[in-house]
Design brief:
The protein is of the alpha/beta class. It contains 34 helices and 22 strands. It folds into 3 domains: about 60 residues, no CATH class; about 375 residues, Rossmann fold (3-Layer(aba) Sandwich); about 325 residues, Rossmann fold (3-Layer(aba) Sandwich), CATH 3.40.50.2000. Helix 22 links the parallel strand 17 and strand 18. The chain starts with about 25 loop residues before the first helix and ends in a 7-residue tail after the last helix. The structure holds N-[oxo(pyridin-2-ylamino)acetyl]-beta-D-glucopyranosylamine (475). The site of N-[oxo(pyridin-2-ylamino)acetyl]-beta-D-glucopyranosylamine has 19 residues, from helix 6. Its EC number is 2.4.1.1. It comes from Antarcticibacterium flavum.
């Protein structure tokens, strides 16, 4: 049936070029047009990638139509808009999401079926852009979905990394990294804009001269230059507008090879070109950790410089003056990664557009707002003064000037010397460094944390002095997730059940889920609920089998922890619990434990020794348990390789239990916690990040709480914490800990888990020993409730019904009201 003449595929006579209708026939026609005329393929020879690409192109046309409409309207209304600056994005696969947002999922499925093609197969073909590490990048993408859906005039800027986050494979139980060639098969979603490109300077020196009127002129004579070119990807909202994700790629400037070329030194010229392109080659894979590498600072400045030039271009295009920049644009800094934007905007306004310092500073401080995503000291960005001097000599001067004026202001407020040195942008305690969080804070009109707890701690810890100086500049915006991708697209079974009961309004108003509450008492509904969950668990079991070869019985309790591997997130606490169960089954012949599959997933930073050991520990425990016939009917342990947005979309719907077990005070918010609960998983967690608010919403009786609170953690540490003592006094814990060194687990390599063992016994910075008992006990309670599936189902329904607050639509509305003062313009 694939071997037909081209004409026979077009059922409509006289099909027109530029067909963008939404009917089944229109989609079929466009799909074939793309296959024939954009790719030059006929069905018999078309590869799966050709078929996927044709469909993607057909869908992209429709997405662009919506985008162009939004743009027209935004321009017409001369609206105030948001520019979102983020070094990372994790959009996930575009195709399914765009089909949902265009409301053509079924039409497309049928159109393809008539051509003997399966939509699901084509969806699988898409390689996602892995342009981020984890939470922060994914949050940026959720926000784009909501900005588009709500009709907020906005543009998102970032970096078009040629290699995204590394691909993770598990070999002999260890993480092995390889490069992510996400562009290998082409990228049908992006459009290059060769005419939107800007020059970016690096290095060199500055020249200070005075003119005849004694006015100071400063010129930056760079040592090198590169060009940034825009690549645009349209992001469509649900039933509504579209916005652009504009990513910059580094290239050599036109003149790059001039001198060398004329001298006939072709190779030297090309080498220079390659050096320029290095800037956007690869994403740094450190989540919540500094790399401190020059190339990373280059990446940050590169994308900030291009983005600010573009914003200014857009502003001037409308015939406006730069003095009003802050009235038309607000620029959101996604963490400090783009915070070099503060001195860069000052440089552009003062040096390039000749504004007076005070006027320029007023515009700058009213333009930026800054979101902090982490309090971990090792993640707070600091750049050595020497590095900035070499790479961005003019910016260093500007930072010093900002700092000296700021310090004068502090003196005016009678701040003490201690306070002043704590608050200074320059840390002179060791090698002088610039504290980027301070720079972002001084240069912004608003600063926010990402959950109520985190925003509170931000004011109490990292930015304490600043919060005292400017109490009104600090606020909270609790994170949210897009329920369109993480429920409607990824969990069609549950979505259909929801819509059947409460209608489809929840797609744009997640609060409508409240309407489900009363059905938790309805037995028939509960049965349907459990059937949907079981189906999703079967799907997850299939994924697990495909990816790991491990068989999971879908009836088991599926207990999941997926997130970056980090000691503060305490994946190893989960492992200690699993080992305690293993010992019960194995040594005490206790078969009363409900069958459970423990599923882990997440990447470790390639240079993070302990995180990589923790992965090896998980897989070693898996090897032991999964291959032991005495145990493997009751317990299974799985490590899913290469966790990604695509894989996540199978994981959340299939989970029964969500592990959110970080030490209190460390997880700024978490967003996986929200995705699990939205899909009907119950949570076991500490009072950390947004867990606090999730528990508040779903009710404490529907949440499995354990562990110390943030205050208790602080007190414990202040009193002097002795993990060894806890270990010595808890027989069960002792056995579990000793098992880490056993031959059974380590196969004779007794050194294998010593680093983890020693760390827990003698330092234990994240209080695993302290929280162990409380965790074990709460897990017993989980099992107790699990035995009563009706009760479990009730709790699950109530969790979903009460998740309204955690839509990213609500977060974006909060940003609009509390920070941006921007209004929606719906097409
Ligand atoms: C928090 N990443 C989550 C999420 O707000 C929170 C830091 C330095 C360099 C590279 N990446 C980072 C983060 O700091 C990060 O992802 N933070 C996370 O942001 C969104 O939900 O609790 O850990």
């Amino acid at each position: 049936s694939r071997n037909k003449k081209i004409e026979s595929y077009f059922t409509k006579p006289g099909v027109e070029v530029g067909n963008i209708g939404l009917s089944k026939e229109d989609i079929k026609t466009s799909f074939l047009e793309k296959l024939f005329y954009s790719l030059g393929r006929i069905p018999v020879v078309a590869t799966p990638n050709d078929l996927y690409t044709s469909l993607a192109l057909a869908v992209r046309d429709r997405v662009f139509r919506k985008y162009v409409k939004s743009l027209e309207q935004y321009a017409e209304e001369d609206a105030r808009g948001v520019a979102y600056l983020s070094a990372e994005y994790l959009p996930g696969p575009h195709l399914g999401n765009n089909l949902l947002n265009l409301e053509i999922m079924e039409e497309t499925r049928e159109a393809l079926a008539e051509l003997n093609l399966d939509l699901e197969e084509l969806l699988k073909e898409e390689v996602e852009p892995g342009l981020g590490n984890g939470g922060l990048g994914r949050l940026a993408s959720c926000y784009m979905d909501s900005l588009a859906t709500l009709g907020i005039p906005s543009i998102a800027y970032g970096i078009r990394y040629e290699f995204g986050i590394f691909k993770q494979e598990i070999k002999e139980g260890w993480q092995v990294e390889s490069t992510d060639k996400w562009l290998h098969n082409g990228n049908p979603w992006e459009v290059i804009r060769p005419e939107i490109s800007f020059e970016v300077k690096f290095g060199g020196y500055t020249e200070h001269t005075r003119d005849e009127n004694d006015k100071l002129h400063i010129e930056w004579i760079p040592g090198s230059e590169v060009k940034g070119t825009a690549y645009d990807t349209p992001i469509l909202g649900y039933q509504s507008n579209g916005i652009i994700l504009r990513l910059w790629k580094a290239e050599a400037t036109e003149s790059f090879d001039f001198a060398a070329y004329n001298l006939g030194d072709y190779y030297r010229a090309v080498e220079k070109k390659m050096r320029s392109e290095n800037i956007t080659k690869v994403l740094y894979p450190n989540d919540e950790n500094l790399s401190g590498k020059e190339l990373r600072l280059k990446q940050q400045y590169f994308f900030v410089c291009c983005s600010l030039q573009d914003i200014i271009r857009l502003h001037l295009l409308q015939g406006r003056k730069l003095e009003s920049l802050h009235e038309k644009f607000t620029i959101q800094l996604n963490d400090t990664h783009p915070s070099i934007a503060v001195p860069e905007l000052m440089r552009l306004l003062v040096d390039v557009y000749h504004m007076e310092w005070d006027a320029a500073w007023m515009v700058t401080c009213k333009t930026f707002a800054y979101t902090n995503h982490t309090l971990l000291p090792e993640a707070l960005e600091r750049w050595p003064v020497s590095l900035i001097r070499n790479l961005l000599p003019r910016h260093l001067e500007i930072i010093y000037e900002i700092n000296s004026r700021f310090i004068n202001e502090l003196r005016g407020h009678n701040f003490t010397g201690d306070q002043i040195s704590r608050m200074s942008l320059v840390d002179e305690s060791g090698e002088p460094t610039i504290r980027m969080a301070h720079l972002a804070t001084v240069g912004s009109y608003m600063i926010n944390g990402v959950s109520a707890l985190h925003s509170g701690l931000l004011k109490k810890q990292v930015l304490k002095d600043f919060a005292e100086l400017w109490p009104n500049k600090f606020t909270n915006v609790t994170n949210g997730v897009t329920h369109r991708r993480f429920l409607a697209v990824s969990n069609p079974g549950l979505s259909a059940l929801l819509s059947e009961k409460i209608g489809k309004d929840w797609l744009t108003h997640l609060d409508k889920l409240k309407g489900l509450e009363s059905y938790s008492e309805d037995e028939t509904f509960r049965r349907k609920w459990m059937e949907v969950k079981l189906e999703n668990k079967r799907n997850l079991a299939t994924q697990i089998k495909e990816l790991t070869g491990i068989d999971i019985n879908p009836e088991m309790l599926i207990d999941v922890q997926v997130k970056r591997i980090h000691e503060y997130k305490r994946q190893h606490l989960k492992v200690l619990h699993i080992l305690s169960l293993y010992l019960r089954v194995k040594k005490e012949k206790d078969t009363s434990i409900p069958p459970t599959a423990f599923v882990f997933g997440g990447k470790a930073a390639p240079g993070y020794f302990m995180a990589k050991r923790i992965i090896k520990l998980i897989t070693a425990v898996g090897e032991l348990i999964n291959n032991d016939p005495e145990v493997n009917k009751i317990l299974k342990v799985v490590f899913l390789p290469n966790f990604s947005v695509k894989l996540a979309q199978h994981v959340y719907p299939g989970a029964d239990l969500s592990e959110q077990i970080s030490m209190a005070g460390k997880e700024a918010s978490g967003t996986g916690n929200m995705k699990f609960a939205l899909n009907g998983a119950l949570t076991i967690g500490t009072l950390d990040g947004a867990n606090v608010e999730i528990r508040e919403e779903v009710g404490e009786e529907n949440f499995f709480l354990f562990g110390l609170t943030t205050d208790e953690v602080e007190n414990k540490k202040a009193q002097g914490y002795h993990p060894y003592k806890i270990y010595a006094e808890n027989e069960n814990l002792k056995k579990v800990m000793e098992f880490l060194l056993s031959d059974e687990l380590t196969r004779g390599d007794t050194e294998l888990f010593k680093p983890i063992y020693n760390n827990l016994l003698h330092q234990d910075p994240y209080l695993l020993m302290e929280d162990y008992q409380s965790y074990i006990e709460q897990m017993e309670n989980v099992y107790h409730v699990w035995q009563d599936r009706e009760k479990w189902a009730k709790m699950s329904i109530l969790n979903v019904a009460r998740m309204g607050k955690f839509s990213s639509d609500r977060s974006i509305q909060d940003y609009c009201e509390k920070i941006w003062k921007v209004e929606a313009i719906k097409v």
